[in-house]
């Protein structure tokens, strides 16, 4: 029971992180009025969030290995609360951007810290499913931003809505401080201070493990498409290029969340029971993404609604698919450097998403703005990422398997010699 209480408390902190991550997205029009910002400036908030989140992953992983989950979850909640209360009270655009960066920093340390709790508190056979459930349940934060937060925003205004979110974050911080413990044996104690050279050597060692890179390319190839779709270009594509109403586009994003939840449960069970087939599951998910996008983009005109539904469902499976990358990191890294490895894995999809978002924006501008033909060309940027990711998976998978066999043979030899 204690393990479930600790995981649930960490999960609440992650739900708040997703809530904080998505509040600005649902309040975009209000933000435009409050900060006198046009569409390009508003998109800066999204890009800034991704840049800070991705850039902070390796430092967050190093801090996680040094100080443990409890310290980082509490710190992350405090940073996000500080950023949200600043957004609540300011009408200065530069200050709002700075506050958004602080929110992104707090968000960056939270997810991997909650994931780190799972292998410490649960038996190995449950870890894959609980890893999936962590990612899945965290998406309830998006529901909170879309329903109660938006309702408060509409009825009570900007400041009240953002202060309410700040209060929720403060609650998560207090509960994490009171209830979360790093391991059953007590808290993680800080190791000796590392020099800059020592830190870089540690990062290099973790990255050179084939399992870490396998997780990185897994996260890259599965997660970026749905992230780009949900965070920036999905709604404009559905409404302008495909001719759907805003209501219909919102309904498809709801379908995306349901599809991700359903796929996550199934994938968690499968990866737990068939751990040696994890990379095949990942390759199938990437192949399905490539196939459905090829079908949609090959059409000379707008796609029928049923095909767009299939598109959204298929790319949404990439969200839980990316969680397999963290399972690779856990399998091929010792506990002492697991945080660093998970941070590296988490960079993969977000770096790819950032590059695709920026590249698509440049292509859309070059082709005269939002149109069916412009989007049709812009979405093809994804194929470059898929090619890189699949190549990386195939190469690192072979190296990881050889490393595992060598370690098993070494273990057997040591056992034989000891007997």
UniProtKB/TrEMBL annotation:
<feature type="transmembrane region" description="Helical">
    <location>
        <begin position="377"/>
        <end position="395"/>
    </location>
</feature>
<keyword id="KW-0813">Transport</keyword>
<feature type="transmembrane region" description="Helical">
    <location>
        <begin position="305"/>
        <end position="326"/>
    </location>
</feature>
<keyword id="KW-1133">Transmembrane helix</keyword>
<dbReference type="GO" id="GO:0005886">
    <property type="term" value="C:plasma membrane"/>
</dbReference>
<feature type="transmembrane region" description="Helical">
    <location>
        <begin position="247"/>
        <end position="268"/>
    </location>
</feature>
<dbReference type="InterPro" id="IPR011701">
    <property type="entry name" value="MFS"/>
</dbReference>
<feature type="transmembrane region" description="Helical">
    <location>
        <begin position="41"/>
        <end position="64"/>
    </location>
</feature>
<protein>
    <submittedName>
        <fullName>MFS transporter</fullName>
    </submittedName>
</protein>
<dbReference type="InterPro" id="IPR036259">
    <property type="entry name" value="MFS_trans_sf"/>
</dbReference>
<feature type="transmembrane region" description="Helical">
    <location>
        <begin position="71"/>
        <end position="89"/>
    </location>
</feature>
<feature type="transmembrane region" description="Helical">
    <location>
        <begin position="130"/>
        <end position="153"/>
    </location>
</feature>
<dbReference type="InterPro" id="IPR020846">
    <property type="entry name" value="MFS_dom"/>
</dbReference>
<feature type="transmembrane region" description="Helical">
    <location>
        <begin position="95"/>
        <end position="118"/>
    </location>
</feature>
<keyword id="KW-0472">Membrane</keyword>
<keyword id="KW-0812">Transmembrane</keyword>
<feature type="transmembrane region" description="Helical">
    <location>
        <begin position="159"/>
        <end position="180"/>
    </location>
</feature>
<dbReference type="GO" id="GO:0022857">
    <property type="term" value="F:transmembrane transporter activity"/>
</dbReference>
<feature type="transmembrane region" description="Helical">
    <location>
        <begin position="214"/>
        <end position="235"/>
    </location>
</feature>
<dbReference type="Pfam" id="PF07690">
    <property type="entry name" value="MFS_1"/>
</dbReference>
<feature type="transmembrane region" description="Helical">
    <location>
        <begin position="280"/>
        <end position="299"/>
    </location>
</feature>
<feature type="domain" description="Major facilitator superfamily (MFS) profile">
    <location>
        <begin position="6"/>
        <end position="404"/>
    </location>
</feature>
């Amino acid at each position: 029971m204690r393990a479930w209480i600790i995981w649930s408390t960490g999960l609440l902190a992650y739900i708040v992180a997703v809530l904080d991550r998505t509040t600005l997205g649902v309040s975009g029009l209000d933000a435009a009025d409050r900060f006198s910002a046009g569409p390009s400036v508003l998109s800066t908030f999204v890009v800034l969030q991704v840049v800070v989140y991705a850039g902070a992953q390796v430092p967050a992983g190093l801090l996680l290995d040094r100080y443990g989950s409890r310290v980082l979850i509490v710190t992350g909640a405090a940073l996000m609360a500080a950023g949200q209360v600043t957004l609540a009270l300011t009408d200065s655009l530069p200050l709002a951007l700075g506050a958004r960066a602080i929110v992104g920093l707090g968000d960056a340390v939270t997810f991997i810290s909650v994931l780190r709790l799972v292998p410490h508190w649960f038996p190995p056979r449950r870890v894959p499913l609980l890893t999936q459930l962590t990612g899945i349940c965290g998406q309830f934060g998006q529901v909170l931003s879309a329903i109660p937060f938006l309702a408060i925003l509409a009825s009570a205004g900007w400041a009240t809505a953002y202060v309410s979110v700040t209060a929720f974050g403060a609650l998560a911080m207090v509960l994490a401080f009171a209830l979360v413990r790093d391991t059953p044996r007590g808290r993680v104690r800080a190791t000796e201070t590392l020099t800059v050279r020592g830190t870089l050597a540690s990062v290099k060692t973790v990255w050179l493990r084939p399992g870490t890179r396998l997780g990185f390319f897994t996260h890259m190839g599965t997660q970026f498409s749905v992230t780009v779709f949900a965070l920036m270009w999905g709604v404009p594509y559905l409404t302008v290029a495909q001719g759907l109403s805003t209501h219909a586009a919102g309904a498809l994003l709801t379908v995306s969340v349901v599809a991700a939840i359903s796929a996550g449960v199934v994938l968690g069970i499968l990866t737990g029971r068939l751990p040696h087939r994890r990379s095949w599951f990942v390759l199938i998910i990437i192949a399905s993404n490539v196939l459905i996008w090829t079908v949609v983009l090959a059409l000379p005109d707008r796609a029928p609604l049923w095909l767009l539904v299939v598109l959204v469902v298929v790319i949404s499976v990439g969200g839980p698919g990316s969680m397999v990358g963290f399972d690779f990191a856990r399998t091929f890294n010792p506990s002492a450097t697991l945080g660093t490895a998970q941070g590296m894995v988490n960079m993969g999809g977000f770096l790819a998403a950032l590059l695709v978002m920026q590249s698509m924006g440049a292509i859309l501008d070059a082709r005269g703005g939002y149109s069916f033909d412009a989007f049709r060309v812009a979405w093809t940027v994804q194929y470059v990422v898929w090619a890189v990711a699949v190549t990386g998976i195939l190469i690192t998978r072979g190296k990881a398997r050889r490393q595992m066999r060598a370690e098993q043979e070494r273990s057997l030899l040591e056992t034989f010699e000891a007997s």
